[in-house]
From TrEMBL:
Keywords for the protein's UniProt record, in alphabetical order: Signal
Name listed for the protein in its UniProt record: Polar amino acid transport system substrate-binding protein
SUPFAM superfamilies cross-referenced by the UniProt entry: Periplasmic binding protein-like II
Transmembrane segments: none
Signal sequence segment: 1-22
Domain Solute-binding protein family 3/N-terminal: 26-256
InterPro entries registered for this protein in UniProt: Solute-binding_3/MltF_N
Organism: Ancylobacter tetraedralis
Signal in keyword set: yes
């Protein structure tokens, strides 16, 4: 009988230890492994920094979550979420009807236009007519790829896909592309670099299509993970209300990145 009691007590202790260990599991915040300034990129030591890194840190602190930044290749980031290799995505992922078929999203945490850049030596607009006969670079598995294939390819443009935004920007600077489409903030950041200043300029923003470009950027979450979604939404609301969001945003932008 004593042996049985000891066994039960030991089992209970082990069970409690398991619960505590589970409770201590860090929340893995997935970010694109490819640099995407000013939102997220590793510094010389490999530490991740940028506006979205500060955003992730702010919501994790507010929600009292033990978070760890987890880089994942962009084209595999949604599978990483659905297979539980990461717990959320903070990677400038737009909330679109197509993605909502697979994953869930938090409320919007920013929204900016989609732009097109090209050589300073050429004059054209960010329209199907303006890009007819031109080769435009886009990052694979993005809303920009979808938009270019929907609007620019049928009008006579050639859409070239890249694994990273940096690769597309570099090919544009080298004269191997006529244009690049991406988030206007990311493109503006590139245009501020020595390479960008020398070669290129903003040709304009594309006509909005919420069905393709989405209704802003949200935190990607697994379907059914309502507890984490509620915590993230509450944290976004709180850091917007208490000034935290504006405080770190001002370090990167001179306008309201939250958008309308």
């Amino acid at each position: 009988m004593k042996h049985t009691v000891k066994t039960i007590v030991a089992a209970a202790i082990l069970g409690l230890a398991g619960v505590c260990a589970a409770a201590a599991e860090p929340v893995k915040v997935g970010v694109a492994a490819e640099p995407y300034p000013p939102f997220a990129s590793p510094d010389a030591s490999g530490k991740w920094e940028g506006w979205e890194i500060e955003f992730a840190q702010a919501i994790c602190k507010q929600a009292k979550l033990d978070c760890v930044i987890t880089p994942v290749a962009w084209d595999g980031i949604i599978p990483a979420l659905t297979t539980k290799k990461i717990d959320m995505i903070v990677g400038s992922m737009s909330i679109t009807p197509e993605r909502l078929k697979t994953i869930d999203f938090s409320n919007k945490y920013y929204n900016t236009p989609t732009g097109v850049i090209g050589p300073k030596s050429e004059t054209f607009t960010a329209t199907p007519e303006g890009l007819k006969g031109k080769t435009i670079g886009v990052q694979v598995a993005t809303i920009h790829q979808d938009y270019a294939n929907k609007y620019f390819a049928p009008a006579g443009a050639t859409v070239k896909e890249y694994q990273t935004q940096d690769e597309a920007n570099n090919d544009l600077a080298a004269g191997r592309l006529d244009a690049v489409q991406a988030d206007a903030i990311a493109l503006t950041d590139f245009l501020k670099t020595d390479q960008g200043k020398q070669c290129c300029e903003l040709k304009g923003n594309v006509k909005d299509d919420p069905a393709v470009l989405g209704a802003g950027v949200g935190v990607g979450l697994r379907k059914g993970d309502t507890e984490l979604k509620d915590k993230v939404n509450a944290a976004i609301k709180a850091i917007r209300a208490d000034g935290t969001y504006d405080a770190f945003s001002k370090k990167y932008f001179d306008f309201d990145v939250y958008g309308g």
